[in-house]
Design brief:
Ribose-5P_isomerase, about 30% helix, about 240 residues, alpha/beta, 4-stranded antiparallel β-sheet, 2 domains, globular, 6 helices, 6-stranded mixed β-sheet
């Protein structure tokens, strides 16, 4: 691992350590997915070993396996439909705490869990901060049936919303497409600038083959961001 990569991993760990202070005994927690959420799962596991009483809903099978290995008590949204707090990473964060998520392929479950939570807190390193969303491709989860027609409609309606760029089917292992935990596919949209995320989000809801998109709007209450200057806490403008 390069020195810069070790530094980034250190920032992710620092953000996770700051977020664990938000966890109180008896909480129902949503556990995020990805390289930034993983250190938080580790922190929860360490607190559980020290006697912390929490119950958690993982946002992916990968996170489920990680949490089970750490001995974290797990539940489901069917058993526990309302959560106190979800802590997750993000691929991009703007100054209104609007997010692009789904780089790890778990955007559907992540959005369901975040919506079921009283609060959503994002942890990240400061590379993820952006004045305008679009520096990271926007993931969109789609069904397999009619894929070409779905992509063409995404392209057309996105253009009407002011967003144009290459749309690619996400590759997986062995030359096959990436498949989500729900058995769907993901297309990644390279829109260099998403000036009006709400307009684009509405446009994407008009595409029948779209299961969910990676724009998380109005869901994040706080972002804990780590960088060379330490930890900064960003709160939603309405908070």
């Amino acid at each position: 691992m390069s020195e810069s990569a070790r530094t980034i991993e250190g920032y992710k760990a620092a953000a996770a350590r700051a977020a664990i202070d938000l966890v109180q005994p008896g909480m129902r927690l949503g556990l995020g997915t990805g390289s930034t959420a993983a250190p938080f799962v580790e922190e929860v596991g360490a607190r559980v070993r020290d006697g912390l009483n929490v119950i958690c809903v993982p946002t992916s099978e990968a996170t489920r396996n990680h949490a089970e290995a750490l001995g974290i008590p797990l539940t489901t949204l069917d058993e526990t439909p309302h959560l106190d707090l979800t802590v997750d990473g993000a691929d991009e964060i703007d100054d209104q705490l609007r997010l692009i998520k789904g780089g790890g392929g778990a955007l559907l479950r992540e959005k369901i869990v975040a919506t079921a939570s009283e609060r959503m807190v994002v942890i990240a390193d400061d590379r993820k901060l952006s004045r305008t969303l679009g520096s990271h491709p926007l993931p969109i989860e789609v069904v397999r049936f009619g894929l070409k027609a779905t992509v063409q409609l995404i392209q057309a309606l996105s253009a009407e919303a002011g967003c144009e760029g290459e749309i690619r089917l996400r590759p997986g292992e062995g030359g096959r497409p990436f498949v989500t935990d729900q058995g769907n596919l993901i297309v990644d949209c390279a829109f260099p600038k998403i000036a009006e995320p709400e307009v684009l989000a509405f446009a994407l809801t008009r595409v029948p083959g779209v299961v969910e998109h990676g724009l998380f709007l109005g869901l994040c209450d706080m972002a804990i961001v780590a960088g060379a200057n330490g930890i900064q806490v960003l709160k939603h403008p309405s908070a």
